[in-house]
Write a structure and sequence with these properties.
The protein is an alpha/beta fold. About 6% of the residues have low confidence.
Length: 370
């Protein structure tokens, strides 16, 4: 699974009486013999730590552990990883979540899944989509740490000319003999504009159908006129106000990333700074600082936004790429953070990860509703 709000809700809502295993490991997106070996060794070590845990019960989790060990032999699985992997397992089954920011190794053996690292990472940013608006081959491309992928959308229209000619041919067959039907080539500007909007609606429909369960920002690229015409057609809530103007259909995915990444990082930084500034300007009476005060606020349903100083920039990373210099350091005891995150999410609040040093201290803090 990809990381999204829906994924977190799915993992959170998995309820049974079984012990829950949560495994986090860094992985390599570049599949070579040494990197595959390193990733599988990490995962094997994690399994061994779990099996040696004092609470491990072979009768309860033995079958699932066998499935996890079988995954070690699945070369195809390990060849298609990102820079991090989360595995959630219980007596019934296991599920995996791909992570697009690097994470330190940790295994948690608890009564519920440890989902706070997922919520924090989702807040940091997991990647972004670019819609290249052109009239030859419109395309949707996903960029994340060490990942560039053009999305194959079944309903994405081809060129404008082919799409309009096809539609006109169908209309002529349906309305043959009608005096109101215009012959091919006999169009006015209003008809051209209508064709263009119809074409853009087909593009938007294909993109939004794919993005139904996604949370990543969508950046529009294209000429000023194309962006201006297509933007109002979107209902996807994460379409960025920023855009990259110009005709980019001749660029390959690497060149397109080089053209767009600065805009994305600037927008994300600006959003985070805006939230931090809002927290700093909020009266102390509407803020809770420290785990104990936040727990009291969450018990009253008052937390609107939970701020966690939870990441830093580093050059010690498995690779380079979008946000690859961010590494999440997972604590052995995650119980306090887990309680705060779960309580906040359960009352419809937001989790915002901020860089260490954003506030006068790195204690968790929360913006309260009233």
């Amino acid at each position: 699974m990809n990381l999204s709000n829906k994924t977190i809700q799915h993992i959170t809502n998995k309820n049974n009486n079984s012990t829950k295993l949560s495994i986090y490991i860094p992985t390599h997106p570049a599949s070579t013999g040494p990197t595959l070996s390193e990733d599988t060794i990490r995962f094997k070590n994690a399994i061994q730590i779990i099996k040696a845990h004092e609470k491990f019960d072979e009768r309860e989790l033995g079958e699932t552990i066998n499935k996890l060990e079988a995954l070690l032999e699945d070369t195809t699985f390990w060849k298609h990883r990102t820079v991090g992997l989360a595995v959630f397992a219980d007596t019934d089954s296991f599920e995996t979540v791909d992570l697009n920011n690097e994470i330190t190794e940790m295994q948690y053996f608890q009564d519920s899944y440890v989902i706070s690292p997922l919520a924090i990472m989702l807040s940091i940013g997991t990647g972004y989509y670019v819609l290249d608006i052109n009239h030859t081959k419109p395309r949707l491309i996903y960029f994340a740490s060490n990942m560039k992928k053009e999305i194959d959308l079944e309903d994405m229209p081809g060129s404008l000319e082919q799409t309009i000619d096809r539609d006109e041919h169908i209309q002529r067959l349906q309305h043959q003999g009608s005096l109101k039907n215009m012959f091919h080539g006999q169009k006015d500007s209003a008809a051209d504009d209508a064709d263009m909007i119809r074409y853009y609606k087909l593009i938007v429909n294909a993109v939004e159908q794919f993005l139904i369960d996604h949370d990543e920002p969508l950046l529009l690229t294209g000429t000023e006129n194309r962006i201006g015409n297509i933007r109002p057609l979107f209902s996807y809530p994460r379409v960025l106000a920023e855009a990259v103007e110009g005709n980019h259909e001749g660029l390959n995915t690497q060149e397109l990333e080089n053209t767009t990444i600065a805009v994305i990082e600037k927008a994300e930084t600006a959003d985070r700074k805006k939230l931090v500034a809002m927290a700093k300007s909020t009266p102390p009476s509407n803020m809770a600082v420290g785990a104990k005060d936040i727990e009291i606020a969450t018990s009253k349903g008052k937390v609107e936004t939970l701020f966690l100083s939870s990441f830093k920039r580093t050059t010690d990373s498995v690779g380079t790429g979008y946000q690859a210099d961010i590494v999440m350091q997972l604590p052995e005891d995650v119980s306090t953070t887990e309680t705060l995150v779960r309580s906040t999410l359960s009352q419809g609040g937001n989790v915002v990860a901020v860089e260490k040093g954003s506030f006068e201290n790195d204690e968790p803090r929360a913006l309260c509703r009233y």
